[in-house]
Design goal:
Elements lengths: L1 E4 L4 E4 L10 E8 L5 E7 L8 E6 L5 E8 L2 E6 L5 E6 L4 E7 L6 E9 L6 E7 L5 E6 L3 E5 L6 E6 L4 E8 L5 E7 L5 H6 L7 E4 L14
Antiparallel strand pairs: 1-2, 3-4, 4-5, 5-6, 7-8, 8-9, 9-10, 11-12, 12-13, 13-14, 15-16, 16-17
Length: 219
């Protein structure tokens, strides 16, 4: 992990908690409501089953391992009332939910919020809207699904002209534009022909707002 200064193009090293493991890289990360950074890992080239982790970087720059036995750490977000944390380990095909303590950053009482329907693709990046629903990108599914985390119900599906949809975030001046990223990796010649826009950034205006992102707070 590093801090990056875009004005000077300088990197400042923080820590590497995976240094003694097989080669890994960090995948999705996001700040919680209190300004701590959560970030998970996965195999450098291919997923290494149950060998990765989810970490929390606190205000004092101390790193805490919050979950282990992860394969592909992915989407993460928090409920509007700051009492729940939603988290994705892609191969499980589920969105987990934990009780979350905003004061301490601790999580507990793991259960399942959403099970991704068969054939929709693997859950990847994720965000939450102002109504508390989860927007989950589906790798291999060419879509983003909006789910009710209380019932697990699929509320709507946004088709994307790219097979491997990776992450999404609300933006624009009114936070009603959903920006969607995708990848052009791991595609067959047939997929490349079918999805010539793979690797692009997409945007769609919606009738629901997102919520502002949380920023990291150090000491």
């Amino acid at each position: 992990m590093y801090f990056y200064n875009p004005e000077t193009n300088e990197f400042s090293f923080i820590a590497d908690p995976d240094a003694n493991l097989p080669p890994t890289r960090y995948n999705d990360g996001k700040c919680d409501p209190a300004g701590r950074l959560w970030v998970g890992s996965m195999g450098m080239e291919d997923p290494i089953e149950y060998r990765s982790s989810l970490y929390r970087l606190d205000h004092d720059l101390k790193i805490n391992k919050m979950l282990d036995s992860i394969t592909v750490s992915n989407g993460i977000c928090w409920s509007l009332d700051k009492r729940k944390m939603y988290y994705i380990d892609t191969p499980t095909m589920k969105v987990r939910v934990f009780d979350y303590d905003d004061e301490t950053g601790n999580i507990s009482n793991e259960r399942i919020a959403v099970e991704i329907p068969e054939g929709m693709g693997g859950p990847d990046g994720m965000t939450i809207d102002s109504e508390g629903n989860l927007w989950v990108c589906l790798w291999g599914g060419a879509c983003v699904g909006c789910f009710n985390p209380e019932t697990g119900e699929l509320l709507r599906k946004i088709d994307v002209p790219a097979k491997n949809v990776t992450s999404c975030a609300f933006g624009g001046k009114d936070l009603k534009t959903l920006f969607i990223t995708c990848a052009s990796l791991y595609m067959s010649p047939e997929d490349i022909t079918k999805y010539p826009l793979a690797g692009n950034l997409f945007a769609i205006d919606l009738d629901v707002k997102g919520v502002p992102a949380f920023l990291f707070k150090d000491r």
